[in-house]
Amino acid sequence: MLEENKVKIAYTIVERDKDGRQFWVRVGAAFVNRDGSLSVRLDAMPVNGKLQIRDYQPRDSRDTSPKEQAA
Prior knowledge:
Layout lengths: L6 E9 L6 E11 L5 E5 L9 E4 L10 H5 L1
Antiparallel strand pairs: 1-2, 1-4, 2-3
């Protein structure tokens, strides 16, 4: 099993509402390599070309959503 701090999640942020609300959509995962670089594996391609890479947190240990972490 991979160390938790080496696993990251790739999101794209999409504006869906007329009021400008943003939704975080998981599009893949990223892994920290030995040299500190990232390898990213995408399951979907973000249309806006933007990715947010965040540390992986198991569901039961999450206190806030990724949106709240970015604030």
